[in-house]
Amino acid sequence: MKNIIITLLLTASASFGYAQNLDFREEINLSGFSYKIYTKQTKNASSDKTVYAILNQTDTIFHDALVKDLKADKEIYRGIYGKNDKEIHFLQFDLESNKMNHKVFAPNKEGRLVLIKEAKNLDAYPKDFPPKFKNNKPIHPIYPGESPALYKWVEQNLYPVLAQKHKANNKGNALIILDVALDGSATLSEVKNLATSSETLNKLREKLTKMPKWETKIQGYDVAGLVIIPINF
What global pTM score does this model have? Predict the structure, then answer.
């Protein structure tokens, strides 16, 4: 395994609500106007969806926080938001195409949030997504010893589990997707582009229980997120 590329999608834990029982998340201030952000969950036989909700003056703004395909047993979308003094930005991550959709809202003179910018199918993280950090890079959990140490741990612990069973019959990249929690622990979210048995998945999960804890307090922020690791056979 020669190269490991890490893509971290920042997410925050979401609480669940419905209709008038929306769960309060936080209150923000944009250009002197206050807005409350809630979370809401809807679930049916095929999907489980959690959204952020902002009760606007004449409508409600919804943005995906997490969308799961229950029949396929996988996550399809993840979403985050960020704000500055004047705008709130939403990012939707398509976990199948690895593209991003970006929307920006700002209050008009009456205080109603209006869409002022939208970009779809982005390949790179938007440069104007707030808050601003060093080198305009989003903060994310950090593995102890960073990429070289992560590379070594994955190569020694996860790669053999997959290689033993699949190396002879598969070529190209498989994707191991980890979910890093706020306590620094990593769990298996999904293995993509590779047929894996329940036995193999359980072995991966067992290995991950022994993975060193990630650092999740970054630049004063508590962060968690997905780690997408392509593996070359």
Answer: 0.58
